[in-house]
Every structure is written in C-alpha cells, then in structure tokens.
Amino acid sequence: MYIDPNTGGILFQALAAGLAAVSGVLLIFSRRIREGIAKMRRGARNDEAEENTETKE
User: Fold this and answer.
1) Helix runs in the chain, H state only
2) pTM assigned to the model
C-alpha cells in the first residue's frame, strides 16, 4: 500500500489543529472546569460526612 508523502503532512496539520483547538477550549473554560470539579468534590465530601453522622447515631 502506497501513501503519498504529502499525506503525512496533511495528517500532521490536522492533528496539530485539533490539539490547538482542544487546548484553546480548555484554556477558555478552565475556570468553569475547576469550579465544576471543586463543586463535585465538595458534594462528595458532604455526602461522606452525612453517611458518617448517620452511622454514628
């Protein structure tokens, strides 16, 4: 199977553009992502605390 040498360049450019797009989205929404993760962690901690208080009573 023969692959044209320029095909590798096109694939590399597509992958580089995709990586740049993903990086840009993560950079733009990084604050929202961090806040969402923090909210999930707080919720998990609160659930765990409620379970511990229920078992002690």
Assistant:
1) 5-28, 30-56
2) 0.55
